[in-house]
């Protein structure tokens, strides 16, 4: 029976990138993808990646005019809840691409470097020998197949088909990504009735509604997007009852609607176990600010390529111990910053619209300095910024512009964020001590809760959503 170094489950952005890089390092790689090629990643059409990230991760940037490339634009604004104040984000050009077509190019590139792909092949279970993962079973139109590999990489996205089959004793959390942990995104491709409008002048992100206006490519003026927890109905209800009522938009017609899901959950605490690694959306590596995950996933994947290719070259087993440095290095490179932001953002989105508008006006939290100083997607916070916010917030409370309870939520979020950061600094360098670290981390996250806890109770009741 043929044996592979790496078996990758899922051939979308994370799976294709990892396959390509590992194949380039000389590994024998097989990708199994549940969909037939024509159906891969058809949920939504346009996606974007930062040009700088594409260069960093050696992702091909199609030339202008290439059918896969739709547009290039520069970072857009953060906008206050009533749409009156705009803060400029850091300069960062973004490339808009057709997702399915781009993924097929990524797959072709990986194949040109020797990675093999089987489409219409759905992972069903692991194969174990002496309690250790040694491969997987998958189903195809021709029935169930088996494949042996030194490592199974779960790149299957939200279903996390392999990770969720790990035993409870695994170092890798085997939780399912539930509707509470998902950001349900609805994209309205629109056309403004007034043709003299410059659609790009309206682009920006509204943190308070988790909503945005962005380029849509040929044939449309913009995409109005909205994301929310629990269901698409919840997101659309927020769009219709909060966003469109508070933000004045010129009249438009909706030409097309797309829907898709992205995880909104802290990352798993350990990515690796003996013969296994979780990656991409399956490991919850999306950005806490917006739920995008194509390039943020590659921060971990890049580290994984380095560690795993070295182990393969030295003929060392792909064991939990040997791969542990992927966990530690990821925590330092991105994990700590991402999970620091989650509780803080949860505190910030509980501000009511008047409070957030006041803070935009008075450069409290929503400040030019903060947004323009964002390092990639990380909030580049300094203790002096925080001290300044707290003083300004106190003034806002004295003027009755900010409720004391809202201050409580923001301060609570900040304290929890700092607690997360301090704990993640102590992430163990070997699996020894992990059980204890994990226990404390779980307790912290139980107390922090989820973005879903900040949902509008009136809409939840109307839609019959229970926590
Ligand atoms: C509407 C919307 C817009 C977005 N826009 C952006 C954006 O502009 N930029 C950005 O960076 N991110 C964006 N995201 C997030 C982005 O889509 C994900 O973070 C990214 O696709 C994750 O890639 P992945 O390869 O980890 O998982 P996925 O893209 O989910 O791929 C998983 C693959 O695994 C396959 N699979 C599933 N089950 C099995 C199985 N049993 N066996 C074999 N294969 C299986 C699936 O068919 C799929 O091809 C957006 C998300 C949504 C919903």
Description:
This protein has 467 residues and is of the alpha/beta class. It folds into three domains: 239 residues, FAD/NAD(P)-binding domain; 84 residues, Alpha-Beta Plaits, CATH 3.30.70; 125 residues, no CATH class. The chain has twelve helices and 18 strands. Strands 1, 2, 8, 9, 10, 11, 17 and 18 form an eight-stranded mixed sheet that branches. The longest helix has 30 residues. The chain is globular, with a radius of gyration of 23 Å. The termini are far apart. Flavin-adenine dinucleotide (FAD) binds next to helix 1, strand 2, strand 3, strand 9 and strand 12.
Provide a concise account of the structure shown.
This protein is α/β, with parallel strands linked by helices and 467 residues long. It is built from twelve helices and 18 strands.
Give the key terms.
467 residues; alpha/beta; Alpha-Beta Plaits; 3 domains; globular; binds flavin-adenine dinucleotide
Please describe the topology of this protein.
Blueprint: E1 3-9, H1 13-24, E2 29-33, E3 46-50, H2 51-56, E4 69-73, E5 77-79, E6 86-88, E7 94-98, H3 99-112, E8 116-119, E9 122-129, E10 132-140, E11 143-154, E12 182-192, E13 204-206, E14 211-214, E15 222-228, H4 232-246, E16 252-263, E17 272-273, E18 276-278, H5 296-313, H6 320-349, H7 353-361, H8 368-372, H9 383-398, H10 404-425, H11 434-448, H12 457-463
Parallel strand pairs: 1-2, 1-11, 2-8, 5-13, 11-18
Antiparallel strand pairs: 3-7, 4-7, 5-6, 9-10, 10-11, 12-15, 12-16, 13-14, 14-15, 17-18
Helix pairs in contact: 1-3, 1-5, 5-6, 6-10, 10-11
């Amino acid at each position: 029976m043929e044996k592979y170094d790496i078996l990758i489950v899922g051939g979308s952005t994370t799976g294709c990138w990892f396959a390509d890089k590992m194949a380039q390092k000389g590994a024998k790689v097989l990708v199994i993808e549940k969909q037939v090629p024509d159906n891969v990643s058809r949920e939504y059409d346009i996606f974007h990646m930062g040009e700088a990230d594409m260069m960093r991760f050696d992702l091909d940037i199609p030339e202008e005019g290439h059918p896969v490339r739709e547009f290039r634009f520069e970072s857009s604004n953060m906008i206050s809840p009533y749409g009156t104040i705009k803060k400029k984000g850091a300069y960062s050009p973004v490339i808009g691409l057709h997702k399915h077509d781009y993924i097929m190019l990524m797959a072709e590139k990986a194949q040109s470097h020797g990675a093999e792909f089987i489409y219409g092949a759905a992972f069903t279970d692991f194969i174990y020998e002496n309690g250790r993962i040694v491969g997987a079973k998958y189903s195809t139109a021709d029935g169930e197949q088996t494949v042996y590999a030194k490592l199974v990489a779960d790149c299957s996205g939200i279903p996390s088909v392999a990770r969720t089959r790990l035993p409870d004793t695994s170092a890798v959390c085997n939780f399912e990504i539930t509707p509470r942990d998902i950001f349900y995104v609805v994209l309205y491709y629109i056309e403004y009735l007034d043709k003299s409008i410059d659609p790009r002048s309206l682009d920006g992100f509204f943190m308070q509604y988790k909503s945005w206006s962005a380029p849509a490519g040929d044939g449309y003026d913009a995409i109005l997007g909205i994301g929310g927890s629990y269901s698409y109905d919840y997101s659309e209800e927020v769009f219709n009852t909060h966003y469109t009522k508070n933000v004045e938009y010129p009249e438009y017609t909706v030409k097309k609607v797309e829907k898709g899901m992205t995880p909104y959950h802290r990352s798993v605490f350990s990515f690796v176990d003996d013969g296994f690694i979780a990656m991409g959306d399956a490991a919850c590596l999306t950005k806490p600010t917006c739920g995008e995950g194509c390039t943020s996933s590659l921060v971990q994947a890049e580290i994984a390529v380095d560690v795993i290719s070295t182990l393969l070259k030295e003929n060392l087993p792909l064991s939990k111990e040997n791969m542990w440095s992927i966990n530690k290095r990821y925590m330092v490179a991105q994990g700590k910053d991402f999970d620091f932001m989650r509780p803080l953002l949860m505190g910030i989105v509980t501000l009511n619209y008047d409070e957030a508008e006041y803070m935009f006006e008075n450069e409290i939290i929503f400040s030019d300095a903060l947004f323009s100083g964002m390092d990639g997607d990380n909030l580049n916070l300094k203790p002096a910024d925080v001290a300044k916010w707290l003083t300004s917030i106190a003034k806002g409370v004295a003027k009755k512009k900010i409720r004391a309870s809202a201050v409580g939520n923001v301060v609570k979020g900040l304290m929890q964020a700092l607690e997360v950061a301090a704990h993640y600094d102590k992430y163990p360098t070997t699996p020894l001590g992990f059980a204890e670290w994990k226990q404390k981390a779980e307790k912290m996250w139980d107390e922090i809760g989820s973005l879903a806890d900040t949902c509008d109770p009136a809409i939840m009741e109307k839609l019959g959503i229970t926590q």
